[in-house]
């Protein structure tokens, strides 16, 4: 092809594309962080409330990801609905611990 110019398209790295690629690399880390935050959030709610509250979520069969929903919410075909509450049965009393060492005499 003599006399003709052939230009290849320039490759531009867009900031958004770079962020998306990084997001794919850290997807598992993001899921772990989300699960930890959800656990701490629910734990703090459980400690702060004495009124029974039921929580509902959809669990993805493939990824194990959890998506909060309501009692009347619907899960996708690849999800299973689960529920739990913040009040459980009291467990049995644990055994007595060993006696501690004797402390120094007070003033």
Give a brief rundown of this model.
With 107 residues, this protein is of the alpha+beta class. Helix content is 31%, strand content 17%. The protein has helices at 15-25, 27-48, and strands at 54-60, 66-69, 79-85.
Structural class: alpha+beta
Helix fraction bin: 25-40%
Number of strands: 3
* Biggest β-sheet description: 3 strands, antiparallel
Contiguous uncertain segments of 5+ residues: none
State the shape.
Answer: elongated
Please report which band the strand proportion falls in: under 5%, 5-15%, 15-25%, 25-35%, 35-45% or over 45%: 15-25%
What does this structure look like?
A three-stranded antiparallel sheet has the order 2-1-3, with no helix packed on it. Strand 1 and strand 2 form a beta hairpin. The protein has a domain at 16-85. With 107 residues, it is of the alpha+beta class. The protein has two helices and three strands, in the order H-H-E-E-E.
């Amino acid at each position: 092809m003599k006399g003709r110019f052939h230009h290849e398209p320039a490759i531009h790295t867009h900031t958004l594309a770079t962020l998306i690629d990084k997001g794919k690399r850290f997807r598992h880390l993001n899921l772990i962080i989300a699960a930890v935050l959800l656990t701490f959030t629910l734990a703090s709610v459980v400690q702060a409330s004495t009124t029974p509250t039921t929580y509902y979520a959809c669990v993805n069969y493939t990824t194990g990801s959890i998506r909060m929903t309501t009692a009347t919410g619907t899960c996708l075909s690849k999800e299973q609905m689960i529920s739990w509450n913040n009040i459980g049965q009291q467990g049995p009393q644990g055994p007595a611990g060993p006696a501690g060492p004797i402390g120094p005499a007070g003033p």
